[in-house]
Design a protein that fits this description.
Helices cover 77% and strands 4% of the residues. The protein is mostly helical. Helix 2 (15-24) packs across helix 3, helix 4 (41-66) packs across helix 5 and helix 5 runs antiparallel to helix 6. The chain crosses the membrane at residues 45-63, 75-99, 106-127, 139-157.
C-alpha cells in the first residue's frame, strides 16, 4: 500500500522538480503546462495552426447554424483571419510566458483568455472582411467556445504518441 502512494507521489511534480525544470529552461516548463504542443518549435507552430484552423472551422460551422457569432465575407478572409490570429497568438503568448512563467498555472488560463480576446479583437479590427456580429459579447463567447474546443484537441495531441514522436 505504501508503495502505491510512493508511485502516485512520484508522478506528481513537487516544488523541487518544478524549480529544476524552470532552471533548465522556461520552454520545457511551457511544454509541461501544455502551452507548447511539441518540443520542436516548428512542429509546434504547424500543429497549432492546424488545430486552430480545425477548431475555428468547427466553431464557425456550429454557431452559424444556430446563432451566428462571427461573419466572413469569403473563405479567403476566414483563412487569413485564423493564420494571422495564430501567428499573433504565438508571438504574444511566448513573449508573455517568458516574462511571467513563474505565475500559477490557473492564473495563466485567465491571462491566456485575455490574450485570445485581444488577439481576436485586434485581428478583427485589422480585417474589414471579418466582423463579430450583433453584440459585443460575441467575441467573449467565441473566445470561450474556441478555447474549450481547442482544449479538447490539445489534450488529444499531447497524449497522441504518433504526434509527439513517442514521448
Amino acid at each position: 500500500m505504501k508503495q502505491d502512494n510512493d508511485d502516485q507521489n512520484s508522478n506528481q511534480p513537487n516544488e523541487e522538480k518544478i524549480k529544476q525544470i524552470i532552471k533548465k529552461g522556461p520552454f520545457l516548463y511551457a511544454y509541461m503546462l501544455g502551452v507548447v504542443l511539441h518540443r520542436e518549435f516548428s512542429k509546434h507552430i504547424l500543429i497549432l495552426t492546424i488545430t486552430n484552423f480545425a477548431v475555428a472551422t468547427i466553431l464557425v460551422g456550429l454557431t452559424s447554424r444556430f446563432y451566428p457569432i462571427i461573419g466572413f465575407q469569403d473563405v479567403v478572409s476566414f483563412i487569413i483571419f485564423f493564420i494571422l490570429s495564430t501567428l499573433v497568438e504565438i508571438f504574444i503568448k511566448l513573449s508573455l510566458f517568458l516574462l511571467i512563467h513563474r505565475i500559477q498555472p490557473y492564473l495563466l488560463i485567465v491571462v491566456f483568455f485575455l490574450v485570445n480576446v485581444s488577439v481576436f479583437l485586434l485581428v478583427d479590427l485589422m480585417m474589414p472582411q471579418v466582423s463579430f456580429l450583433f453584440e459585443a459579447t460575441n467575441i467573449l463567447s467565441f473566445t470561450v467556445l474556441f478555447m474549450l474546443i481547442r482544449l479538447l484537441f490539445t489534450m488529444y495531441i499531447r497524449r497522441a504518441h504518433w504526434i509527439q514522436g513517442g514521448i
